[in-house]
Write a structure and sequence with these properties.
The complex is a heterodimer of chains A (337) and B (272). In chain A, 31% of the residues lie in helices and 30% in strands. In chain A, the strands form 3 sheets. In chain A, strands 6-7-8-3-9-10 form a 6-stranded mixed β-sheet, sandwiched between helices. Chain A starts with a strand and ends with a helix. Chain A has 11 helices and 14 strands. Chain A is an alpha/beta fold. In chain A, helix 3 packs across helix 4 (124-137), helix 3 (109-118) packs parallel to helix 5 and helix 4 packs across helix 5. Chain B is 78% helix and 0% strand. Classes of the chains: A alpha/beta (337), B mainly alpha (272). Chain A binds chain B through residues 12, 14-15, 62, 65-69, 87, 90-91, 93-95, 97, 100-104, 106-107, 111, 114-122, 163, and chain B through 3, 6-7, 10-11, 13-15, 17-18, 21-22, 25-26, 88-90, 92-99, 259, 262-265, 267-268.
Chain lengths: 337, 272
């Protein structure tokens, strides 16, 4: 079977700089952005890559969209090697990144979108018709004749999303497409992505995100990636099912706890993550326990610390819990760092 | 093949559109881009007048002043444009698209040529009228051919520069700065390049504007031939060679730099 996207031991390193601890060594320190990544994505699939900032998501997209060469390994798009035949790959793809500021301020939204459609050889009439349709879908008709320099961040990102869909690519790369957008606009963008893949069975989307809800809602399958390594790859429901035998607890406490590492050694704790909320002075704790009986040991440890439990709930596993169980940290922890 | 050509032509027009429309939406640029350069050109005319230089020198200066528009355009609006495109986030969109990098540059060149020509025509026409320049055109056909070849070779050279900007950041910016003024001197924008001596003039001929200006002066002004560096026909041949050389070199330079950028991960790295 021919995959829409396939990676075989895909590896990418970046030079960090000269080592400081050894002045004689001229060997630059290497950062492993992707470490032997093996993925297969089927045609028509909406595939998510979930991971914290710096996990290697953007590097993966940059390699597959021919902007970066792998250090080793192979990346195939529709069976074509991205490193050897980038020109052939480019005919099948388009890419949209979150927080993009592309386009020209002197042109209107419609003109900018038309300009980018010309890079794909679209007939003007077809392009404009498609632009108008997509703008209507995302509620942007009234902005069509506005210069993009006057658009808000959200509207600008909507325009970027439209740019990705206008040329109707076979494979679309979306790198954090809803980054920094408000709830309403994110919802509209997700709806468009979903309907596009649903309507056009042969189209494939590779989406990177660090929003678990987004991956959960949109993706047929999700690869969880951290430090350049794929830790798990399955459908969101299967990933969550893998945690069913464990007990997932969410606890909110009234203090900004310190020395949180002690929770890792509490009996029965398999994985643990936390999130400080400085604006409320509270801390959210997430525990994956071997079974329910160990919760008393955890609450006892919290009480010993002089902290008060504000809420405690046993939760259905989420993708974040899956991430915590695989990495021993939350996505938010990593993003804060 | 046919589809690829059509896609590239559409890309050229699409990219040129940005500049063509921009020129009409912000006409204020005419004041700074056309009127002010006329003043600096005029100052050279007055220097020659004060020194009682031969009459044709006024024409030489006006022509040189007009042609500076193309040099500035190639340096700042074409070569350096990849730097801005990278900072704006457009470069990666161009690189992901199924088009030749030269199509993008040609689009920039076409749009830029329109802007530069507006400035050049303004300086040339208004300068000629104010200072009553006397033209004695020997061959209009050759004059047009030299102008055309100069532009092709010049924009080819600009494409080579732009390959540097695809990869580098500020350092290429300084290089551009470094190129601007010395070329005014070496190419003889405001005097016949022969004045620098034959050897230096010949070396400077690697810059297409040197031969272009020299040839046009020989063909458009009385006394131009006497101050010419080389025979006009020879200059036409040299410009043809330079045009072909620069365009081919640009093709490979762009490919090489893009590949290097992809290897080093610097192609889309901003704020270098």
């Amino acid at each position: 079977m021919s995959y829409a996207i396939e990676t075989l031991d895909l590896t990418r390193t970046f030079k960090k700089g000269k080592k400081k601890n050894n002045s004689n060594s001229k060997k630059p320190e290497l950062i492993m952005a992707l470490d032997k990544v093996n993925l297969t994505i089927n045609p028509g699939e909406l595939f998510g890559v979930l991971g914290p900032n710096g996990a290697g998501k953007t590097t993966l997209i940059k390699i597959l969209s021919t902007l970066l060469l792998p250090t080793s390994g192979i990346g195939l798009v529709d069976g074509i090697d991205v490193a050897k035949y980038p020109e052939k790959v480019r005919k099948k793809i388009n890419m949209v990144s979150g927080g993009e500021h592309s386009g020209y301020g002197i042109l209107t939204v419609r003109e900018n979108l038309w300009m980018f459609s010309q890079l794909y050889g679209m007939q003007t009439k077809v392009a404009l018709q498609r632009i108008d349709e997509l703008m209507k879908l995302l509620g942007m008709q009234e902005y069509a004749r506005l210069k993009i320099s006057k658009l808000s961040t959200g509207m600008r990102q909507k325009m970027n999303i439209i740019r990705g869909f206008v040329c109707d690519p076979q494979i679309l790369f979306l790198d954090e497409p809803t980054l920094g957008l408000d709830v309403q606009i994110s919802r509209e963008v997700r709806k468009l992505i979903k309907s596009w893949v649903k309507e056009k069975k042969e189209k494939t989307v590779l989406l990177t995100t660090h929003y678990m809800a987004e991956a959960d809602e949109l993706c047929d399958r999700v690869a969880i990636i951290d430090n350049g390594k794929v830790l798990a790859c399955d459908s969101p429901s299967n990933l969550k099912t893998s945690l069913k035998q464990d007990a997932v607890f969410h606890i909110e406490v009234n203090l900004m706890l310190d020395n949180l590492d002690r929770f890792k050694v509490v009996p029965g704790v398999k994985k643990f993550a936390y999130e400080h909320k400085p604006h409320t002075g509270r801390t959210d704790l997430k525990f994956i326990l071997e079974n329910d009986s160990y919760i008393s040991a955890v609450t006892g440890e919290i009480s010993n610390n002089g902290s008060e439990i504000l809420s405690l709930s046993k939760a259905e596993p989420t993708l974040e819990d899956v991430f915590v169980s695989l990495c021993g940290k939350g996505l938010e922890d990593e993003n804060r760092a | 093949m046919k589809t690829e050509l059509r896609t590239n032509l559409k890309a050229i027009f699409g990219r040129a559109y940005v500049r063509l429309v921009g020129a009409h939406r912000e006409p204020s640029w005419l004041a700074s881009e056309a009127l002010l350069p006329l003043l600096s050109t005029a100052s050279f005319v007055y220097v020659y007048k004060a020194l009682k230089a031969p009459e044709e020198y006024t024409g030489f200066v006006i022509l040189g002043g007009a042609m500076t528009a193309y040099w500035i355009n190639v340096l700042w609006s074409m070569a350096a444009q990849f730097y801005w495109e990278k900072e704006m986030g457009n470069l990666e969109l161009y690189l992901v698209a199924p088009i030749s990098r030269m199509a993008i540059l040609l689009g920039m060149a076409t749009g830029g040529f329109y802007l530069a020509s507006t400035r050049a025509v303004f300086v040339f026409v208004v300068g000629s009228l104010i200072f009553k320049v006397n033209f004695v055109v020997i061959s209009l056909g050759k004059l047009a051919l030299i102008f055309f070849l100069t532009q092709v070779a010049l924009y080819g050279l600009g494409m080579i520069f732009s390959s540097l900007f695809m990869l580098f950041g500020r350092e290429a910016w300084h290089t551009t700065n470094l190129f601007q003024e010395p070329i005014y001197l070496l190419s003889g924008f405001f005097f016949p390049v022969k004045s620098l001596g034959f050897t230096i003039g010949l070396l400077a001929s690697f810059i297409p504007l040197t031969l272009g200006l020299d040839g046009m002066r020989q063909l458009a002004f009385k006394g131009g031939k006497e101050s010419g560096l080389l025979n006009v026909n020879l200059e036409i041949i040299a410009l043809v060679i330079l045009s072909i050389f620069f365009l081919i070199a640009a093709h490979y330079a762009l490919k090489y730099m893009e590949n290097m950028g992809k290897k080093e991960g610097r192609l889309t790295l901003r704020w270098q």
